[in-house]
Amino acid sequence: MNNETNTSPGKNVLVEDYNNNYKEIFKQTPDFINNIRQTSFKEFDLSGLPSKKDENYKYTNIEAAFLGAYKRQFSKQKLTIDVNEVFKCDVPELDNYLVLVNGWFYEKEKLLTKYNNGAIIGSLIEASKQYPEIVKKYYGKNLTKQKNSLSSLNMAFAQDGLFVYLPKNIIINEPIQLINLIVATEELMVQPYNLIIAEENSSANIVICDHSLNPQSFLLNSTFEVIANKNSKLEIYRQQNAHDHSVQITNTFISQKENSFVNSVNITLNGGTVRNNLYVELNEPHAINKSYALWLADKNQHFDNNVHVHHLSPECESFQLYKGIVDNSSTGIFSGKILVDKKAQKTLAFQSNKNLLLTNDAKVRSKPQLEIYADDVKCSHGSATGQLDEDAMFYLRSRGISKKESCQLLMQAFADEVINKILLEPLRNEINNLVEKRLRGELSRCNRCKVNCGQ
Amino acid sequence: MLSIKKLKVSINGKPILKGINLEVKAGEVHAIMGPNGSGKSTLAAVLAGRELFEVTSGEVIFEGKNLLELLPEDRARMGIFLGFQYPIEIPGVSMVNFMKTAVNEKRKYQNLPLLSSSDFLKLMREKKELVEIDSQLTNRSVNEGFSGGEKKKNEIFQMAMLEPKLAILDETDSGLDIDALRIVANGVNKLKRPDSATIVITHYQRLLDYIIPDIIHVLYNGQIVKTAGKELAFELEEKGYDWIKKEFAE
What we know:
Chain A is of the alpha/beta class. Chain A contains ten helices and 22 strands.
């Protein structure tokens, strides 16, 4: 085996930091998690940060993104502000939310709740202490199969994160919402780890909103591990809305069992460099996964969306629709892969990426891929990048609608195809609103929230 | 109302219209007929402001304004309406949102207060009845998945909503069965006002059984080669366009 490790200035700092602080890091979590930290750290130390030579990171310079003088918090630090003072999400029906500040839970009374029906929702660290047998069963189990050095890094430093446990047959209709807030007076690197477990026949909606409270640059490298057991049903919605000096990386791993259904919608409204990795594994028959994403990039923003769907079992379905609107000098990237194993006969898999290119300086890169080893499947993929349709523009203008408003209508129509996949109505309306404002170049602030995203 | 003088238009350097003269007064219905490729649709598109075409010379005055200087949306707000030969499908843009935006843009231009949602829906209901359009169609995206006939009816519905001064209907009859044709023609006739005018562009005489024109022009090879009363339509129906082609062959 080659012992040569991959080094870069960003990586070296992280390795050093880990070696100097692992004692403090280990104090936060039980041994079973710390063992995983060690393994993950070794993996990261070996692989290093993904370089531009890595085919999967060819167009996004992750090494450069890690070059900031980021500080890391190895344990919960004292907060100097009252979160409820500065942040309020007042979207109707989305009023009971959990707030993760810089990767930690601060609200003591909401730290971890076990409901009468057995559902457990709250802090992952707290859950790993109170319910170690549940957490241990799933923690990091899916990630080992995917060699992703960014999630290895996350698992080594893993802070707190959302823990959701849905027991057998439990259906939760009220959305479970997490607000991921970054409030920093210095450059921060934040690495939360989140775990969502849906047992047999359970169902829930999960809403995650990433926000920044002040314009200080930060790097968010988060991991989501989602386990959808037999007949379970999950809706996962994520909104990314942070300022232009942010680096946001998400590593989402979804593992599905028989007849489970997972619908996920990711909306990237703002950010500096965004890299979203989604890995889906369909492990047993009749599992269905639907993944949608919409990104609206302008200025010099750089949004990179990567999806990898693995069909390991027969008769599963997967569907991906990824759409981007890129304006000014921004870059939008899509890379998707559907991998169908030899035994995954009767697979249905469809993948589509569509981009709207608004200027000559904006860039789009798109790489849809299919890798099929079974011989009885229905799979298709496609990618289309273009400008606003001239004929449609003229049609609208010929009815008295100005050029600007016609563009707006057509862009919104483009975006709606993804937004409409959000089944939670109040959230859909809110996202619609934010997208409309965003496309008009107005401040996209969530309702009366004081956070100025996109500044 | 509309005065076109010596209008010459080309596309990619190729002349399409070679000196059109046309006068349309309020209250009149003009029909422009002619064989395929004679420039009928180009004339309609140029009047509506399509930028694809290059106006090389001539002028178009509408209600005292130089039309050629105006953006398509400003022409529409002034009261020009183009009924498309091939209406465009716009997935994701709802008919309601589309029409509401269009009606209110026009009202803004006219310094009228914007319509409230309930007033707008009321207006939509009235106009839908007037033009006999299936009320489900307006719940869908603009023309998306509409049949040929539905698309044409939708054009007339939009015309009813926008109440233009000058409606230019480009081959509105093409692809319509006789019932749809009657509905479309009835719509046009009902919407006629003493202060408005209509230009009907058609290939066949059939539509003119329902919409009676005051004046018929024959456009051939980029020029209006004949102008006469409605009896001209019957002559064309009987003899086709060959005699015109012969008479005006280059």
